[in-house]
Amino acid sequence: QVGCRCTTLAVSAHCGWWIASCSEMANSGIEPARLQNMLQTLQQGDPAIDQIVVYSKFVVAYLLQQDGPNPGWRKANIEGPVYLVHRRTVPRYQLLVKNQFSTNDLLDDLHPEWELDCQKNYVFYKVEDPSKRIRGLWFHDDNERQRIEGIIEATLKEINNSPAETQVEPQPQMPTQPEPNDLPQQAYAPRVSNCPRMDGAPHAPKAPAPSQESVTINTAGVKSALRALADDDAFVSMVMQKLRENQRASG
What is the pTM (predicted TM-score) of this model? Predict the structure, then answer.
């Protein structure tokens, strides 16, 4: 069994969330064998992960820059699949964007003090650490965004309703680590001058254009990109249409 610790509907309220999670994963159309492979891959980096609560195949991460003369959203140079995972130890839940371009992933521990805000194609969230910038995740399909948003909200409610438990393991004092890709970047829409409570979500931008920045291309990155395209129904449909057009033209 992958991703579910309950085997019957006659379960306690505590396990009801796991049933809902399993149902959601099944409805997403992911084959159990593929889900098992995903879980094993994530466990290579974090053996404490015991469940993929929900998965979406591609998002683009943004960070909100509120200081300086040109505040606004900056692309974090983090793109790839997003996972909400459950762990055997604290922190119990983590949101992970697995970067397809490098090992610079976006990883956040779900916490009762999170603030969540959403608009079409975007999920925005403010973590409990005030020193960290507000995050934004762009989804190509807004139905997919709504699915992920609903499960994150349900998980936050689960955390709030659970018996008190430290959400993050105590850590020794260490020098502050930079945010992912914490370097000056070109500002991307959406822009906001001040969004401390995310009262008004910014206007949705057009789909981010392909980055003009140089990137290191390797075999693993090409394979990952091709797999993502093969899983994109819109891309496959476009290719099939082009093939049919070429076939008619040659005929």
Answer: 0.62
